[in-house]
Specification:
Blueprint (H helix, E strand, L loop, with lengths): L1 E7 L7 E7 L7 E10 L2 H7 L9 E2 L4 E8 L11 E4 L8 H4 L9 H6 L10 E2 L19 E5 L3 E4 L14 H13 L6 E5 L3 H13 L3 E6 L2 H10 L3 E4 L5 H9 L4 E6 L4 H9 L1 E9 L20 E4 L7 H13 L9 E5 L3 H9 L5 E5 L3
Parallel strand pairs: 10-11, 10-13, 11-12, 13-14, 14-15, 16-17
Antiparallel strand pairs: 1-2, 1-4, 2-7, 3-5, 3-8, 3-17, 5-6, 6-9
Length: 368
C-alpha cells in the first residue's frame, strides 16, 4: 500500500514528505496501525544530528497513537478498530522482559535501532524501489501508517482524545516513570529536576502526584519555570542567575534533597544536581548526552550519593501508560498543557519551534 511518510535522507537536513510503498503482508505478530498523531521527541533529532547511528534514508518518529487497521495471525492483544499507543519494541522473551524491565530488553538495540525486521527484511521502499529504514522504536510513526508488533502496542480506552496520547509512549513515560517506578519517593520527600522540557515536566507532575513536599525546577528559560510552578514545582531556579547547588543547600532545602533528575545530559548541570543531594541521595540521568563522557566533580560524588541512567522510565507500558491516563482523567497529571499541534506537513516548523523553545511538546496530526 502507498503511505505518506516524513523521510530523513541525510544527516542534519530537513524531513521531506514522500510517498512510500509499504508491504502489508503481515508477519504473524505484526500489527498495522493507522497513525492518528505522533509526538516529536529529542531522540528523533539525535538521529538527525548523528548522535545515535541509524541507517538513512529513514522514517523516524516514536510517539505514535492510532487505530488498529490489520493484525497478524497470532495477535490476540488487540483487534481491528482498537485505539493504541505505540511504545518501544521489546522481545518479550529475555530475562529482562520477563521480569518487567522491557526498557532493558537484551534485544533493545536491534529492535529499536536496527532499521529492519530482525530477519533483515524491509517492507518500506521509496518511489525508486530503494529500501527505507524504519521500525524506529518499533514503529516509525512519522507516517500515515505504521508496522508495529504485538509487544509494543498498548491498547487504550476510547474515552480520551487519541491525538494527545502518543507522547505517553516515550517522553512523558520516561519522566513520569523515572519518578514513580525508579525513585519511588515517599510522601514528604524532596526532588530537583534539571531541565524542564517535556520529560522534566512529566517528572515534576509525577513528583507532585507522589506527594513530594519540595519539588525544585531548574532551567534557563523563565517561561518554562513558570509552567513548572503551575504543574507542581514548589520552587524554581534560573541557573543563569545562581549556583544551583548552593541555592538548594543553603536556602531552599538545607542538607540537600533526596533525589535529582537530569534531562540535559550536560556535565556541568549533572555536577550541580549531584551537589544538591543529601547524603545517600540519588541522581538519575535521562538525556541523550551531547558529549561522549559523563564527568562530574569528584568532590560532590561522595557520602553515598549515586548516579543511575534510566531508559523509558523502566516502565511496563501495558501497565504504566493506562495508569498515567487514569491520573490525567482525575486531573492529577495534566500533560496536555505541554502540547501544541501541528499538521503533518508542518514537521520542519514543529522541529524549529521545539529547538527554539517556542513549543514544549509538538504533536503532528496526520491527514484524515
Amino acid at each position: 500500500m502507498k503511505i505518506k511518510a516524513a523521510v530523513l535522507s541525510a544527516p542534519k537536513t530537513s524531513f521531506n514528505l514522500e510517498t512510500i510503498e509499504l508491504d502489508t503482508e503481515l508477519r504473524s505478530e505484526e500489527i498495522l496501525v493507522k497513525i492518528v498523531a505522533t509526538g516529536l521527541c529529542h531522540t528523533d533529532l539525535a538521529i538527525r544530528d548523528s548522535q545515535i547511528p541509524f541507517e538513512l534514508p529513514a522514517i523516524l518518529g516514536h510517539e505514535g497513537s492510532g487505530i488498529v487497521e490489520k493484525i497478524g495471525s497470532n495477535v490476540t492483544k488487540v483487534k481491528i478498530g482498537d485505539h493504541v499507543i505505540l511504545a518501544p519494541a521489546s522481545c518479550g522473551k529475555c530475562s529482562y522482559c520477563k521480569s518487567g524491565h522491557q526498557s532493558y530488553c537484551i534485544n533493545f538495540m536491534p529492535l529499536n535501532f536496527g532499521g529492519k525486521r530482525t530477519d533483515g527484511s524491509c517492507p518500506y521502499h521509496n518511489h525508486s524501489g530503494k529500501e527505507v529504514s524504519a521500525f524506529f522504536f518499533g514503529q516509525s510513526s512519522f507516517a500515515t501508517y505504521s508496522l508495529a508488533s504485538e509487544n509494543n502496542v498498548v491498547k487504550v480506552q476510547d474515552d480520551v482524545e487519541l491525538e494527545i496520547l502518543g507522547p505517553l509512549g516515550c517522553g512523558i513515560q520516561t519522566g513520569a516513570g523515572t519518578v514513580l517506578n525508579v525513585l519511588q519517593p515517599s510522601a514528604g520527600e524532596s526532588i530537583v529536576v534539571s531541565g524542564v522540557g517535556p520529560v522534566g515536566l512529566a517528572a515534576i507532575m509525577a513528583a507532585k502526584a507522589a506527594g513530594c513536599s519540595t519539588i525544585i525546577a531548574v532551567d534557563v528559560h523563565d517561561n518554562r519555570l513558570e509552567l513548572a510552578k503551575e504543574l507542581g514545582a514548589t520552587h524554581v531556579i534560573n541557573s543563569l542567575n545562581v549556583v544551583v547547588s548552593d541555592e538548594i543547600n543553603n536556602t531552599i532545602h538545607p542538607g540537600g534533597v533526596h533525589y535529582a533528575v537530569d534531562t540535559t545530559g550536560r556535565n556541568a548541570v549533572i555536577t550541580q544536581a549531584v551537589g544538591s543531594l543529601r547524603y545517600m541521595g540519588k541522581c538519575v540521568v535521562l538525556a541523550v548526552a551531547p558529549t561522549p563522557n559523563i564527568e562530574i566533580d569528584n568532590a560532590v560524588f561522595t557520602m553515598g550519593r549515586s548516579i543511575q541512567y534510566v531508559v523509558e522510565g523502566d516502565s511496563v507500558p501495558d501497565i504504566f501508560i493506562p495508569q498515567l491516563i487514569t491520573l490525567y482523567k482525575k486531573g492529577l497529571f495534566p500533560f496536555d498543557k505541554l502540547i501544541k499541534f501541528y499538521e503533518f506537513d508542518q514537521i520542519n516548523q514543529a522541529i524549529e519551534d521545539s529547538e527554539k523553545g517556542i513549543t514544549l511538546k509538538a504533536i503532528l496530526r496526520m491527514p484524515k
